[in-house]
Design goal:
alpha+beta; Beta-Lactamase; 2 helices; globular
Length: about 170
Amino acid sequence: MLKGHFMKKSTLYPAVMVLACIIVASVAVAEETREDALVALVDQVCEEIVANAPATLAQISGGEHPYKNRDNPTEYVFVYDANVTIVAHPKSKLIGKSYRGIPDFKGKMFRDEIVEGALADGTGWVNYVYQKPGAKGLKPKKTFFKLVKGSDGEKYVVCSGMYRKEIGLPN
């Protein structure tokens, strides 16, 4: 009896390990797919800012699709200037506010990090915690950013992020 019980456990272990690998791989693919979509959106917005910065910034601030995803309102574009001031955001009350030196609730200066990273490297990713629209508490967020020079000659840092729970990762 003990021998049979041991056999069941030993044959179950490889199956559980294979299932765990499949889950981890599918989460990684989901994250990569979402990342690719964010990069494509930010690239598109950068092209639009190069063509017509004032109109594009107004559309972002108006919460228009695709700048604010009508199917998933947690996906939106926001834009900083080189001084870490929000110049476009679907939440109009944030526009014109400087966020230089203001950390997230865990003390990370993610906004400064975004703008500094854009000015130094042109593009990148930053992880931080933020209040997810429609949810309680803070959630881990990953944001892609890219520096662009607008049709008006100004430098802009175009950003869009995703909340980690949405792709199956723990909070």
